[in-house]
Specification:
The complex is a heterodimer. Chain A is an alpha+beta fold. Chain A has 17 helices and 19 strands. By secondary structure, chain B is mostly helical. Chain B contains 17 helices and six strands. Chain B has a two-stranded antiparallel ribbon with strand order 1-2. In chain B, strands 3-4 form a two-stranded antiparallel sheet. Classes of the chains: A alpha+beta, B mainly alpha. The interface between A and B is large, with 37 and 54 residues.
Chain lengths: ~500, ~475
């Protein structure tokens, strides 16, 4: 019986060799895959071994890591709760990060190549390694003003957004979306708390998790007239060129007449371009758009940033909050010819034209900066754990839709809007303010959206802030006037003139 | 058996190896404490010392009752057993930290319980060595043991699932806080029965045959016992929902049959029948479902554990398997070090998945060493089988050693994704009294037989054949009468 016993021993040897080979497969060959697998909870534990960097603005922390005595050693804390949530987002224990927490994740977590030298030196000095810090361009005073004024708006609007930009650099000064959310429960170390908080926010029909400033588009209404004016100025018109107006306009091949918002708006047959913008003359701009033609209108909008699919606001080098593209629609009949009635509607920001709040602010900033549209950004600086600057935002021109002469004309016309026209409530002491209001019909029977895009020059003649405020479905009228009032206050705060 | 001067007992080698094993266990405990508590407590050595005292007691018993027993068996098993207790204590400390409780005492928690089970297991092993002075005595009770074995195998299958089912496999008897796995003991009884039965029948089974394709095949009427055991193991597969246990019993029988008859045809028939049966069960599970569905599920999960539909399934999914693999992968070549990993992320890490938990911390190198330890135990058992002079002893030792090796293969293969996962315990390592006691009894039996194998010849008909007897003579012998 010894021969089969020996063979049984060989069988066991073979079985153990199989085990050994398979262990090599699991622990050596596949080790990296398994170590970094999404299913591997150790990744989280390791991620929370070192403190994630601080996100700050104006010297105050907006997101920081507090030491805990749990398995995950640091808890992410957002001291201002909903105020900055649409911008910085949050970093949940499991699942994807959102906002700046997402786009700057590598740097904040300390895994970025930019922090390689710091990790090496921490190894030798014995210092606790940490994540890098991110400094935002947000001006807290402007952000607070925007949030306070938006949430306490005089028209009782429940939803809306506001963006303020420094026209000279593209630095975002404020970005607010209403309603917002408290990110703290979402980053709870208790998965039940986090899941319940997410479920509730996600089910909310007002969509508080949506950043309305960057992700949502709306019909821009009369703010579109800035772009139509620019197209006209490029095509031989001047501020004082008289255009055809009147109380009613029927576009070629269409039965639905276009009226003005109020009977007293440009009833005369002819008004100057400047007067038409000042009073927001619908009939005049609808005719002007049709006169210019569909292609010119679409091209002009594109020149200002419409249709750009890949714009992000964050770090100028890479990544950030993705900006939903603004659209003009194709303004065509099914046979490919220009839809004249649609073009007339599109020229006053209706029909299929859709715009983000960010795009509105960029429009005003472009005019204020003499025609150069600066690439918007949120990340001003990246600092190493010991607060050495690793990255400084270096402003860059994104596009130049108009030359300085057209920009000068538009500036004068928009200042006229605020000083003599529909945007009077945007005026602020000590600044020259220009802008354009917009009241946009959006759905049958729904209250219109109120818009204001504008800019402010200080007494030295510098463009200190450009802004766009958007209020959804404002009942009882005066929607754009309220947006203009809030815009003025945000710009005043951004310019250092104090809030409220 | 009295000691004979001039023949080496190697008991002192055993003692030295045992002390070495306990030193490793103490170092494991100290490292775990250093990593978990950031300090080494003044009592880190107590656990290893207590275990050492227990194993030394067995060592003393062996000195008196089986002086010529294999000196490698006890230290190797003691090392695995000690690492198991150490790992369980490390898990207790982990839990206490998470719950902000004081560090548990030596006798608290699963680690403390495992220490107590080790005590009971060693008492049983010592009693076996004291009572059974000659392994051939066991053959007197072979039919009783056979019946007991079958009853133990079948109990969980006939009990309601609420009593017998844990994690989908029905291998248990749960009585309140207390639960035992009767199958662990069944394998001991069944090996003894098979060995006796085959010694009696080996002549008929090995000689009467028909030649086909150059291989001797048994006559149809002699297939009875194989078919019976085959059906039994497939019933286990279907009703206890456990492929590993079925494979264990069937493999055990086929191998003892092969060793007894020296007929490769039995191996071929056995393997074809088993894997054919498993494949049919898989197909039936896919098409018919019912009692076969569980096995089909397990096999599908095994084929693609990372598929989200299996991973996210609440019951019977691949979550546990995947977490075990991730733990092993994270451990990598060298492991995180004792106490520095996150084995609590793996469900059942104290019992079925202890190998994955330990693997995260001791790495591929540590696990390879552990595999070698198991291999050493199995091969030492087979060596005892080779050396012992009587057929019954050969079959018992060979069967037990092979079963142990097969069990290690089944559970470790399951955890590492080599074969479908089954609910076996890892011998000597997993938390649980049944497994520990049954496997220590197995070791005691191997000690007893190795003592007979290595000791001087003291007389008796079986011994007269002489230790260097060539296999051919044994083979040609007439049906043997076992004389204790």
């Amino acid at each position: 019986m010894n021969a089969p016993l020996r063979r049984a021993g060989v069988v066991i040897l073979v079985l153990f060799a199989l085990l050994f080979a398979n262990l090599n497969w699991v622990q050596a060959y596949k080790a990296d895959d398994y170590r970094t697998s999404d299913y591997n909870g150790r990744v989280q534990v390791a991620e929370y071994e070192i403190p994630r960097g601080v996100i700050e603005a104006g010297g105050q922390p907006l997101a920081e890591s507090k030491a805990t005595d749990g398995t995950l050693k640091y808890l992410r804390v957002y001291p201002d709760k909903q105020l900055y949530a649409p911008v910085i987002g949050y970093k949940p224990v499991s699942g994807a990060e959102v906002g700046i927490e997402r786009s700057e994740n590598e740097f904040l977590s300390g895994a970025s190549d930019k922090l390689f030298a710091d990790r090496i030196s921490a190894m030798f000095t014995g210092d606790e390694p940490g994540g890098g810090n991110v400094v935002l361009s947000i001006i807290p005073k402007a952000q607070e003003t925007a949030w306070k004024q938006l949430t306490n708006n005089e028209r009782g609007a429940k939803k809306g957004s506001a963006v303020a930009i420094d026209p000279r650099t593209g630095a975002i000064q404020a970005m607010v979306s209403m309603p917002s959310y408290d990110p703290n429960p979402l980053v709870s170390h208790d998965p039940k708390v986090a899941a319940a908080a997410y479920k509730e926010l996600n089910a909310d029909k007002d969509k508080p998790l949506l950043n309305r400033a960057t992700q949502e588009t709306y019909p821009p209404g009369s703010t579109m007239k800035v772009i139509i004016s620019a197209a006209a100025l490029k095509n031989g018109f001047t501020q004082s060129t008289e255009i055809q107006a009147g109380s009613e306009y029927v576009a070629p091949g269409s039965g639905a007449p276009i009226h003005n918002a109020e009977a007293e708006t440009c009833p005369g047959a002819r008004v100057t371009l400047k007067e038409a913008l000042t009073d927001s003359c619908n009939t005049g701009f609808a005719r002007l758009g049709v006169q210019l033609g569909g292609d010119k209108v679409k091209k002009e909008a594109q020149a200002w940033g419409f249709e750009q699919e890949d714009l992000t606001i964050g770090n100028l080098k890479d990544g950030g909050l993705p900006i939903t593209p603004s659209h003009t629609g194709d303004i065509q009949n099914p046979d490919g010819s220009t839809d004249q009635a649609g073009l007339a509607q599109s020229s006053i920001g209706q029909k299929d034209v859709r715009m983000t709040t960010v795009q509105g602010a960029l429009m005003a900033a472009t005019v204020a900066n003499g025609g150069r549209q600066m690439r918007p950004y949120l990340v001003k600086q990246e600092l190493s754990p010991d607060r050495r600057a690793i990255y400084n935002a270096n402003p860059e021109v994104l596009r130049t839709p108009i030359n300085s002469q057209v920009a000068g004309d538009l500036r004068e016309m928009m200042v006229s809007v605020v000083e003599n026209g529909t945007g009077r409530r945007a005026q602020i002491n000590g600044f020259q303010v220009g802008g354009k209001t917009g009241t946009a019909q959006n759905a049958e029977g729904a209250d219109p959206h109120g818009w204001f895009v504008g800019f402010a020059f200080n007494d030295k003649g510098e463009p200190v802030s450009a802004v766009c405020v958007m209020l959804e479905n404002v009942s009882g009228g005066h929607a754009s006037a309220e947006a203009a009032r809030i815009s003025g206050l945000i710009m005043k705060a951004a310019a250092g003139g104090g809030g409220d | 058996m009295p000691r004979v001067p001039g023949t080496k007992t190697r008991r002192n080698s055993e003692l030295v190896l045992l002390l070495l094993a306990m030193a490793i266990v103490a170092i494991f405990g100290a490292t775990a404490e250093a990593n978990q508590l950031d300090k080494i407590t003044s009592t880190f050595w107590v656990q290893a010392a207590l275990l050492g005292v227990l194993f030394l007691a067995l060592h003393v018993v062996v000195r008196f009752t089986a002086p010529y027993a294999d000196p490698v068996l006890i230290p190797t098993v003691a090392l695995i057993n000690g690492l198991g207790v150490g790992f369980l204590r490390r898990m207790d400390i982990e839990r206490a930290i998470a719950r902000k409780e004081p560090i548990p005492g030596m006798f608290a928690g699963t680690g403390g319980r495992q220490l107590m089970w080790t005590l009971f297991a060693l008492i049983l092993a010592a009693v076996l060595l004291l009572v059974i002075r000659d392994h051939k005595v066991v053959s007197r009770y072979a039919y009783t043991l056979g019946l007991v074995g079958i009853v133990l195998v079948m109990i969980p299958a006939v009990l309601p699932p609420s009593i017998s089912e844990v994690n989908g496999a029905r291998l248990w008897i749960k009585l309140g806080a207390f639960s035992i796995q009767p199958g662990e003991f069944a394998k001991l009884a069944l090996v003894s029965f098979f060995a006796y039965y085959l010694v009696r029948k080996r002549e008929v089974l090995s000689l009467a045959s028909r030649r086909f394709l150059g291989i001797d095949f048994p006559r149809g009427r002699d297939l009875g016992p194989v078919v019976t055991v085959w059906l039994l193991s497939l019933l286990v597969l279907v009703f206890e929902k456990d492929l590993g246990t079925a494979l264990l019993y069937f493999g055990l029988f086929v191998v003892t049959l092969y060793v007894a008859t020296e007929r490769a045809s039995w191996l071929i028939i056995g393997l074809l029948m088993f894997f054919g049966g498993v494949y049919v069960a898989y197909l039936l599970g896919a098409s018919v479902g019912g009692p076969f569905a569980n096995f089909y599920d397990r096999a599908s999960v095994w084929l693609d554990p990372f598929a989200p539909k299996f991973y996210n399934r609440e019951f019977g999914g691949s979550y546990q398997l995947v977490q075990g693999l991730l733990g092993l992968g994270t451990g990598g070549l060298f492991g995180s070090g004792a106490g520095a990993g996150s084995p609590w992320l793996v469900p059942e890490v104290r019992t079925d998945f202890i190998f994955a938990g330990l693997g995260e911390e001791i790495g591929l190198f540590g696990l390879s060493a552990l595999l070698v330890c198991y291999l050493l135990i199995v091969e030492r058992g087979l060596r005892a089988a080779l050396g012992v002079r009587d057929s019954f002893g050969k079959l018992v030792a060979g069967g037990l050693a092979f079963t142990l090796g097969l069990q290690v293969f089944v559970i470790l293969g399951g955890i590492t994704g080599l074969i479908p996962l089954t609910g076996q315990t890892t011998p000597f390592l997993s938390a649980g009294g049944s497994s520990l006691m049954a496997n220590w009894l197995l070791i005691a039996m191997l000690l007893r037989i190795s003592d007979a194998a290595r000791g001087p010849v003291t007389g008796g008909p079986a011994a007269q054949a002489g230790p260097k007897q060539p296999p051919a003579q044994l083979h040609g012998a007439m049906t043997e009468v076992i004389k204790p």
